[in-house]
């Protein structure tokens, strides 16, 4: 497992959204450091609490932005957000319920959806805004 570094491939061109994405990646990298230091399991509950809280806030902000610019795929994007929040909430509930969760697998899952979601779905928002701006 390696740290996720911000690269231009993750940049949507939407400064507020990109800053929030950087923060999500930072949370993920914090968990990676905890795993490397041998505190992965102990850090999982706090990680998922923070991730769930911030993801809810970020997705609400992103959806509000998409609505404000008339993004045509808002409802499909919103449905993906709900599934991702549900996945994070389910992982959190497992941890709270005492179900063992492998920190490395949790991190791989989170990194995968964060990076894929940004590169595939969120990049489309930026592209839509750039096309509209050109006229």
Describe the structure.
The protein is 79% helix and 0% strand. By secondary structure, the protein is mainly alpha-helical. The chain has a single domain (11-134), classed as Hemerythrin-like (Four Helix Bundle (Hemerythrin (Met), subunit A), Up-down Bundle), CATH 1.20.120.50. Helix 1 packs antiparallel against helix 4 and helix 3 packs antiparallel against helix 4 (103-134). The longest helix has 32 residues, at 103-134. The protein is elongated. The model has no long low-confidence stretch (mean pLDDT 91).
Characteristics:
single chain, 135 residues, mainly alpha, Four Helix Bundle (Hemerythrin (Met), subunit A), elongated
Q: Quick recap of the structure?
A:
The protein has 135 residues and is mainly alpha-helical. Helices cover 79% and strands 0% of the residues.
Layout of SSEs?
Elements lengths: L14 H22 L3 H29 L5 H23 L6 H32 L1
Helix pairs in contact: 1-2, 1-4, 2-3, 3-4
Contiguous low-pLDDT stretches (5 residues minimum) are none
Query: Major sheet, described briefly?
Result: none
End-to-end Cα distance, whole Å, is 43 Å
Quickly count the domains. 1
CATH H level, superfamily name: Hemerythrin-like
CATH architecture: Up-down Bundle
Count the beta strands: 0
Please tell me how large the radius of gyration is: 16 Å
């Amino acid at each position: 497992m390696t740290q996720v570094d911000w690269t231009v491939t993750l940049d949507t061109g939407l400064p507020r959204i990109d800053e929030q994405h950087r923060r999500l990646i930072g949370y993920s990298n914090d968990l990676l450091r905890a795993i490397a230091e041998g505190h992965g399991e102990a850090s999982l509950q706090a990680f998922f609490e923070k991730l769930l809280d911030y993801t809810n806030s970020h997705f609400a902000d992103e959806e509000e932005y998409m609505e404000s610019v008339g993004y045509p795929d808002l409802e499909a994007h919103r449905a993906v957000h709900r599934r991702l929040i549900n996945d994070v909430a389910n992982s959190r509930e497992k941890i709270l319920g005492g179900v063992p969760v492998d920190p490395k697998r949790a991190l791989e899952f989170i990194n995968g959806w964060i990076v894929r979601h940004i590169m595939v779905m969120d990049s489309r928002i930026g592209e839509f805004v750039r096309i509209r701006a050109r006229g």
